[in-house]
Amino acid sequence: MSENIISSDLLVVGAGIAGITAAVEAAETGASVILVEKNPYIGGKVAQFNKYFPKMCPPACGLEINTRRLRTNPSIKLYTMAEVTSVKKTDEKINIILKLKPRYVNNRCTNCGDCVKVCPQFRKNDFNYSMNETTSIYLPYENAYPAQYVIDKETCLGETCSECVDICKYQAIDLNEKEKIISLETKAVIWAVGWDPYDAKNLDLLGYGQYPDVITNVMMERLASVDGPTKGEIIRPSTGEKVNSIAFVQCAGSRDENHLNYCSSVCCMASLKQTKYIREQNPDAVIHVYYIDVRSNGLLEDFYNSVQDDEKIHFHRGKVAKVIQDQSSKKLIVEAENSLTGTLKQNAVELVVLATGMKPATADIRIDKSSFDENGFLKINGTIGCGVITKPKDVAATVREATGSVLKVIQNIGRN
Amino acid sequence: MSSENKVGVYLCSGCGLNESINFDELTKVAAEENKVPVCKVNQWLCNEENIKVMKDEIKAESLNRVVIGACSQRFLSDVFNFGEDVFVDRVNLRENVAWTHKPNDEDTQMLANDYLRMGIAKVNNCEIPEPFQKDINETILVVGGGITGITSALAAAKSGSSVVLIEKSDRLGGWLNSIYKTEPFHYPYTEPEIPEKEKLISELKSNDNIKIYTSCTINKITGEPGNFNVTLSNPANESIIVGSIIQATGSLPYNADKLGVLGYGKFDKVMTGVQFEEYFINGKELLNGGPVKSVAFIQCAGSRDKMHLPYCSSTCCANSLKQALYVREKYPDALVYIIYKDIRTPAHLEHFYKRVQDEDNIFFTKGDVINVESTDDDLISIDIDNTLLGDKIQIRSDIVVLATGTVPSTLVGKPESGEQDDESDGKTLDGKKAAQSAETGAKILNLSYRQGTDLPTLKYGYPDSHYICFPYETRRTGIYAAGSVRYPMDFETCKEDAYGAALKAVQVIYNAKKGKAVHPRSGDESYPDFFLQRCTQCKRCTEECPFGTLDEDEKGTPLPNLTRCRRCGICLGACPERIISFKDYSIQMISSMIKAVDIPDEFEEKPRILAFLCENDAYPSLDLAGRYRLQYDPNIRVIPVRCLGSVNVVWIADALSRGFDGVIMIGCKYGDDYQCHFIKGSELASKRMENVQEKLKQLVLEPERVKLITLSIDEYKQIPEIFNSFVEEIVEMGFNPYKGM
């Protein structure tokens, strides 16, 4: 049996920017690495972002370099659509069981795209937070790595249809592919499972799910992206028209005892960045930002200053109490309270962006629950994690922590 | 063409390529025109069985050069890999030809033919890189004995490295010596923590892998990663050899003498947060033991202030919250006021903020301090404007604490209009001037590099790097900044940062031993070769290398330090004598590709445009244009380059004298928010455009025939417009008069 077990020095769980960084930094220091990712593509949230603050540069740029480092390094083995289902530690090694979900498209796929032309079924595009659809056989996004299609079995008609199987010249599609279980053996694990946006449906007074023109900050990233559902045009979902007035609701679910009692760290900068998306597309748009504290720590202050220089961006201190719709104008009324004066302020806007926070994606993680605090963050202990699993943080801090986590691994397992 | 080269051409007609391109013609280009001994077409080149057949054939025919005419080089690089002895080039017939041009069109076919010619020329003018071999020292030097330095030294030593740590003062610990407690970094993140200074220092001292020098600075560093020769000040002129360096020289408080407007220096009861902390470390009584009824903290004292430090110092909010608790503990009846702009306690520190808010007698006031005075009853009055209530208010307090910010130690010794900036005691700093200049004038590392003594910095004196995606990659290979010298950060972040820098310090040595490049061309075994007999000492290469790879002898001849090199080829682009080359990237290689293009005579009315695309961003962007099947003019011939900065003017001259009608260069954005992975490449390319214009003048050609465009990777939709409009401009200008000459 043991010869069938795949072994490595290091297992990295999660191939977002944290996991990718940890994997390439480790491999470039001589470690053999298995990198596992639950999505059919790598890049995680970063792949869905339009720009990074404060440089306003595309994440695809750094991701391109990292993907090149990853795909050209023979010391890294990548599994996508993979989930760690068991972690068993012995004195010398760690035994891992990995569940590989069927992709239904193998690595013979050449990306020719013929299958999409014949697929009669559609699915909601989760990459774009369901703001549009793709065919049931799809590429997660155009620049996805691995550049390999995948089938959504929920909506696929299966063998009764088989159009894609018939048209594929490269025998790349197997509608009967089964889930696989594989065993791995490793000396160390880095957990980099990332985060989920806080579910805005929990914020019932803020109108998400009730009014189509209330969206979240992560949706805004996709709306602004050139490969997003609107090809980069920021529009009012209810009308499809360009946006002339917009409100950003900060701490939507963060710093709130009823939701997330911590600060999600990045939402201030994310909204400041998004004001620039709006401004670039509409020089006249009026923008309101409702905040408790603007947290543009460190040198990011320069960016905040540059946003404050924009005369059509108004900052209001106060937590938004509710968002309702004006029946006649169909505009959204944002009502905020000044906590000191107790006065209510109202503004009518066409689009509301909820700056929802980050929740660590650790609910299903297979390690001892005592390693986590009640919010799901990894406490400082022997378990090595990086990225939002330890605390909410931005990309720069994630990369820093991911790089450092590799040294911790080398301390434990030695060098090759 | 080397006679030892034996070339095989393998063409893929799948993915719809056969519906667009005539493969018989392509085969003729390879087999007849270029006399390639092996040329095969397969309708599914990448399938496992065929790859096996190819591998066998390559071996049987002893091919050492293979041209794959199929999809982009960004796909299947592992599949089309035939071992170390076979040089492979990818001719992108899919994204660059079939998917982006009219099928079965004469112009499309000409494009495919030319790309194949260029690929064959390329492999015939390349050699397979062999890594250099050098003796590599594996010791890591840590500069600075504060929290970051100690942590990184221990981190590296525990991972098996030998470490030398130097500290300029006579005492280890840095800021740890000036701290009673830190803000909470451990669950549940609510109570200040006693830092483990003694434990860390004793661990450091007892680690056999670590050698410590105190009262020690660096007189000089020569050499390169794997072989830095470091001359120390104490013991005088002792020199040590190390492999890599971590700069953990920390930060200093902003000079409060500049804060007279907040009462500092005027009133004894106005002190800095650092001074306030001292009372608690030493158990000294505030106000000489008199009653303390109130303490007011003024946040952002000298930070977030255009007159002082425009940036946020990041740590002062949590620091004052912590000190507010000191007051509550020692003087239970005292009132505490915290006057702030925004309370910045990100992530888990929010729990701490909440806990301090829940404490009795601590009052938070948002507003701007406009005046600080002493009162008749010997209190300090603070006038505050822009409060949330909209009114001006006044707070009176026994003691005022200024939460001063942080300035990187790179600014020590920075000359300020003729005078030394560290006028006082070397313990505080004025970062205001630094806001205007990236030149710090620091002399910490004392590198005897041609390009200066220390790490190049961004504005405010923080070391330059791709600080979002690749924060450790400074512009001096093998030297990594960490901790508060790199960015304003708290103790816990400094510790994390120390680990990251330690990993990079270990990694650079690992790769130097193997003769491999580090980021971003990780693993590249090629390196620049200098044919110095023909060097004219123009110094362009030594000036332009963004990583300070090249030193100079007294005449100005470059002295390469190969382990400093990042293989961008910017030196190759700079050299007017064309004496710099890589085995797999050279003047000759690209020139041969340019010459391989078939230039139709002017009567055919087919312009030819040469395009140099940065392979890091512009080329992937072109690939994406292909994936979206965006159509563009078929008269463009694209050559991917390592960096736009590696484009030598001679290639442009070659192209124009060969009859190309125009040349376009597309690279990364430059400027303050540069995206160039080699920091300066695209900027240098744009500066060299002056030389290009000079060249055009000599050739009596219009300056508009050569154009430079910057493009982000996500701007692929602009590519057709960029290409098409350039071709239109050129056509309007008329054909290159050198055509056919």
List the topology elements:
The complex is a heterodimer of chains A (416) and B (741).
Chain A: E1 6-13, H1 17-27, E2 33-36, H2 44-48, H3 59-71, E3 76-79, E4 82-89, E5 94-100, H4 114-118, E6 122-124, E7 133-135, E8 137-138, E9 150-151, H5 163-167, E10 180-191, E11 195-197, E12 214-216, H6 217-224, E13 245-252, H7 267-281, E14 286-291, H8 301-308, E15 313-317, E16 319-325, E17 332-337, E18 344-349, E19 351-356, E20 358-360, H9 395-413
Parallel strand pairs in A: 1-2, 1-10, 2-3, 12-19, 13-14, 13-19, 14-15
Antiparallel strand pairs in A: 4-5, 5-10, 6-7, 8-9, 11-20, 16-17, 17-18
Helix pairs in contact in A: 1-3, 1-9, 6-7
Chain B: E1 7-12, H1 23-33, E2 38-42, H2 48-60, E3 65-70, E4 87-92, H3 94-98, H4 106-124, E5 140-143, H5 147-158, E6 163-166, H6 197-206, E7 210-213, E8 218-224, E9 227-232, E10 239-242, E11 244-247, E12 251-253, E13 270-272, H7 273-281, E14 294-301, H8 316-330, E15 335-340, H9 349-357, E16 362-366, E17 368-374, E18 380-385, E19 393-397, E20 399-404, E21 406-408, E22 415-416, E23 419-420, E24 479-481, H10 491-514, E25 529-530, H11 540-544, E26 550-552, E27 558-560, H12 570-574, E28 580-581, H13 587-596, E29 609-614, H14 618-627, E30 636-641, H15 649-658, E31 662-667, H16 681-698, E32 706-710, H17 719-733
Parallel strand pairs in B: 1-2, 1-3, 3-4, 5-6, 5-11, 6-7, 11-24, 13-20, 14-15, 14-20, 15-16, 29-30, 29-31, 31-32
Antiparallel strand pairs in B: 8-9, 9-10, 12-21, 17-18, 18-19, 22-23, 25-28, 26-27
Helix pairs in contact in B: 1-4, 4-13, 5-6, 5-10, 7-8, 8-9, 13-15
Short description:
Chain A has nine helices and 20 strands. With 416 residues, chain A is α/β, with parallel strands linked by helices.
Descriptive report:
Chain A is an alpha/beta fold and 416 residues long. Chain A contains nine helices and 20 strands. A six-stranded mixed beta sheet of chain A has the order 3-2-1-10-5-4. The longest helix of chain A has 19 residues, at 395-413. The radius of gyration of chain A is 23 Å and the shape is globular. The two termini of chain A are 26 Å apart. The relative contact order of chain B is 0.10. Chain B is 27% helix and 20% strand. In chain B, strands 7-6-5-11-24 form a five-stranded parallel beta sheet, with helices on one face. Chain B has a five-stranded parallel beta sheet with strand order 13-20-14-15-16. Chain B has a four-stranded parallel beta sheet with strand order 2-1-3-4, with helices on both faces. Chain B is α/β, with parallel strands linked by helices. Chain B contains 17 helices and 32 strands. The longest helix of chain B has 24 residues, at 491-514. In chain B, strand 17 (368-374) and strand 18 form a beta hairpin. Chain B is elongated, with a radius of gyration of 31 Å. Chains A and B meet through helix 3, helix 8 and helix 9 of A and helix 5, helix 9, helix 10 and helix 14 of B.
